[in-house]
Amino acid sequence: MYARIIVGLSLGFLLSPLMLGAAEEKISSREVTFPTPDGGLVSADLYGSGKHGVVLAHGRIFDKSTWRPQAIRLAQEGLVALSIDFRGYGATKAGGEQGALYNDVLAAIRYLHGTGFEEVSVVGASMGGGAAARAAIESKAGEIDRLILLSPVPVENPETMVAGALFYIVSGGDRLAASVREQYERAP
Q1: Residue 76 DSSP one-character state
Q2: Which residues have CB under 8 Å from 92's CB, separation 6+?
Q3: How far apart are CA 13 and CA 104, in angstroms?
Q4: 114 pLDDT above the threshold of 60
Q5: Cα–Cα distance for residue pair 78/51, rounded to 1 Å
Q6: Using CB atoms within 10 A as the burial measure, which of 3, 31, 33, 57 is most buried?
Q7: What's the pLDDT score for residue 28?
Q8: Coil, strand, or helix at residue 36?
Q9: pLDDT tens string 36-56
Q10: What is the greatest pairwise CA distance in the chain?
């Protein structure tokens, strides 16, 4: 596994190319649900078709619909995007473990593998980045092929994350920049 970090770029600048052409092609989504390891139920939107799935995990003030432009762009590129709502958002129901957002990400990863996806990547932003990082700590080898963390909230023991490749992105002026750098330096 290897880790990379980008500091000093505006996330809007970095993500805007993903949004180009999103309105040009009509790509629809379908809602899917799947259980979490702790007995909850995740509601998600599934876009595209292919063999490589990408889980999209939103930040605290957002929901699964926030990822729609990026999900459409990923689908245009031949990937499958699975944009999840965390417990407490939309129709997603919490499981027995209080505040265990990582279980929602694990459920999404396992849902994609269970429906035949050969590769699964995860993109998490802010709160979703922290949940994705924790999911990488709790996951089994081979479950996460690539992990992209956009200004993730810190997690305990980032050195124990398991992913084929790990990529951190943070804006230089972001209030989390110092903690993201510290997490990156501890990551495998």
Answers
A1: H
A2: 40, 41, 42, 43, 84, 85, 86, 104
A3: 28
A4: yes
A5: 9
A6: 57
A7: 92
A8: coil
A9: 999 999 999 999 999 999 999
A10: 43
pTM: 0.89
Show the beta-strand stretches assigned E in 75-117.
Answer: 80-84
Strand runs (DSSP E) across 17-93, as ranges?
29-35, 41-47, 52-57, 80-84
Residue that is written with structure tokens 């799947």 in the block: 34
Give me the residue label for tokens 């990379």: 4
Whether residue 21 contacts residue 160, with contact meaning beta carbons closer than 8 Å, is answered with no
CA dist 123 and 97 (Å) reads 23
For residues 187 and 185, give the distance between their C-alpha atoms in angstroms, rounded to a whole number. Answer: 6
Q: In which residue are the tokens 């998600």 written?
A: 44
DSSP notation for 111-171: HHHHTT-SEEEEEEETHHHHHHHHHHHHSPTTS-SEEEEESPPP-S-GGG---SEEEEEE-
Strand partners, 114: none
Q: For the CA atoms of the chain, what is the radius of gyration?
A: 15
Other Cβ atoms less than 10 A from the Cβ of 52: the count is 18
**Token pair of 101, please?**
């957002």
